[in-house]
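Structure tokens please, single chain.
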Amino acid sequence: MKVAIAADGQTVASHFGRCEGYEIAVIEEGEVTERERIANPGHEPGRLPRLLSELGVDVIVAGGMGPRAQGFFEEFDIQTITGVAGGIDEALEAIAWGRLMPGDDTCHHTS
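Here you go.
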């Protein structure tokens, strides 16, 4: 599984589109086997879902994401997990162990 986490420093960003970048990780058999950081290409509707799809990402994790953005990710068969806070390392570990739980989405706009 390939995961993208919206990142501000070493923390899961509160909004997927306005973060510094994305931590891209490959998880195999409960272990993170690859990691890289890419810069945020800019907040433009549909741009990031297309880019992450081209990179083979299966799941995106963030603190928040509006319903329109979630729809774009769905079009590219990328699962969204929102309401996540805390450190990126901890989020990756939780994903690897199948224990990452979504929380309350921190994005409060409707489009």
